[in-house]
Write a structure and sequence with these properties.
Helix content is 45%, strand content 12%. With 427 residues, the chain is of the alpha/beta class. Helix 4 links the parallel strand 2 and strand 3.
Length: 427
């Protein structure tokens, strides 16, 4: 039995290796017919070592990076062939495919990269940390109160761009000997200045509800996903009313670890299709598209798991409910917004219609949201976060210049000292 299992594992690994090799060949062929990257051109690099499954982490930065490119040349350092292929297909900045350390060294040596931005905590980030004389900056892929947001890995970066005071407070509570004031810079959420997308339906009198669950998680402390515990009940109840429209936007990794979780997801998708077939005017939406923005702006109420989606929605300042994890081992930071949010338990999921009516009518809850928006994101006036992002980059560029000048001055001083010693020898 074990031999069969080992054989299947070996077969999967071989298939993965062959797919990866083919992807490498496709990317190299595409880049071969494109103009070469000009030397000493790029000042900012975005390091991305992941494949297609984590593309959502990059996509949300495309438009903020496009704005940044108007000020500073930006390139994406893609380490994974499938990820590089996606970047080339999509609206990403220029892409340098550097799958090996030798490729990375060669490209880095040909450029004047002063700031390296990181959107996640991939272990291969450490292969880039080896390069000094540039700032390594963690920009993350969202704001949340998950334990991911307080990992000790923050100390590996020179700086971290954070959304607001809530992030600073979170890091101060959790990390030992970490100078939050010196090593974090607040930028709000620049992505909110670029919410986009076209509504896949015509608005009407229906109450639109966004249900955006996260994936099942890969360890008990991260078991935040609600598809199997809350999702089927709440979606089923909303589909049955005739006065609600459901936008179902699950995490792209839903079901990658737990087959039962994936099966629950597929049943929800099937239920939405059946509801639309029975009532075409309902226009319920299964949303697995790359764009995020219209969902947050268009929905009257949002139901989300503990994830970055909490804070994406929070910035919209509209009614929001958070699913309470069933697994008691799930790590929940109740020191911030989650200490004051509207929780939805699994037992209450079937009563979602009454819960939605309640949070929509509660003026105090709306006022409370506004207060938390300020705490997490600061000024959310359109354009302010983008200006903060650019100012943070400008600051680090200035600091780079200062350190470089010190270095040059030190070299000149050493050379002058050598000259003086030579004169003494001559005497």
């Amino acid at each position: 039995m074990r031999g069969v299992s080992d054989l299947k594992k070996a077969y999967r690994l071989l298939g993965k290796a062959l797919r990866s090799r083919k992807a490498v060949q496709r990317v190299r062929r595409r880049l071969a017919v494109m103009p070469p990257h000009p030397e000493n051109h790029y000042k900012i690099a975005v390091y991305f070592a992941d494949g297609a499954v984590n593309m959502y982490q990059m996509r949300q930065w495309y438009r903020p990076l496009a704005e940044l490119q108007k000020l500073w040349p930006v390139v994406v350092l893609a380490r994974n062939a499938v990820g590089a292929e996606k970047l080339l297909d999509e609206d990403a900045p220029p892409v340098a495919f550097v799958p090996t350390v030798k490729d990375l060294e060669r490209f880095t040596a040909s450029q004047d990269i002063r700031i390296v931005l990181y959107v996640n905590q991939n272990t291969r980030n450490f292969q880039m940390f080896r390069y000094g004389r540039r700032w390594h900056v963690f920009i993350n892929h969202g704001e949340s109160d998950k334990m991911y947001m307080t990992t000790n890995q923050y100390k590996a970066y020179d700086y971290a761009f954070v959304a607001g005071q809530a992030a600073r407070d979170r890091l101060s509570r959790t990390l030992w000997d970490y100078d939050v004031d010196a090593r974090t810079i607040e930028i709000g959420r620049p992505q909110a200045d670029h919410y986009s997308g076209t509504l896949p339906y015509t608005p009407d009198e229906r109450i639109t509800v966004l249900y955006a669950p996260t994936w099942e998680g890969d360890r008990p402390s991260a078991h935040y996903g609600s598809i199997a515990t809350h999702g089927e009940a709440l979606v089923g109840a909303l589909l049955a009313t005739g006065r609600h429209r459901v936008i179902y936007r699950p995490h792209p990794r839903s079901g990658v670890i737990d087959d039962a979780y994936g099966a629950a997801h597929r049943r929800i998708v099937a239920a939405i299709a059946q509801a639309n077939a029975a009532d075409p005017a309902a226009r319920h939406v299964f949303d697995d598209g790359p764009e995020l923005g219209w969902q947050l702006a268009a929905s009257d109420v949002a139901i989300v798991d503990i994830s970055a989606m909490v804070y994406d929605r929070l910035a919209a300042g509209k009614p929001l409910m958070i699913t309470r994890p069933v697994d008691e081992r799930a790590s929940v930071d109740t020191g911030g917004y989650l200490s004051d949010c509207e929780w939805l338990t699994a037992d209450a999921a079937s009563d979602i219609v009454d819960e939605i009516d309640r949070v929509r009518a509660d003026e105090a809850a709306v006022a409370k949201l506004r207060m938390w928006v300020q705490h997490y994101f600061g000024d959310t006036t359109p354009g302010v976060a983008t200006a903060k992002f650019h100012a943070a980059i400008e600051r680090l560029m200035g600091e780079w210049d200062e350190w470089r000048q010190r270095e040059i001055g030190a070299v000149v001083t050493d050379e002058d000292d050598d000259d003086e010693e030579g004169k003494d020898d001559e005497i």
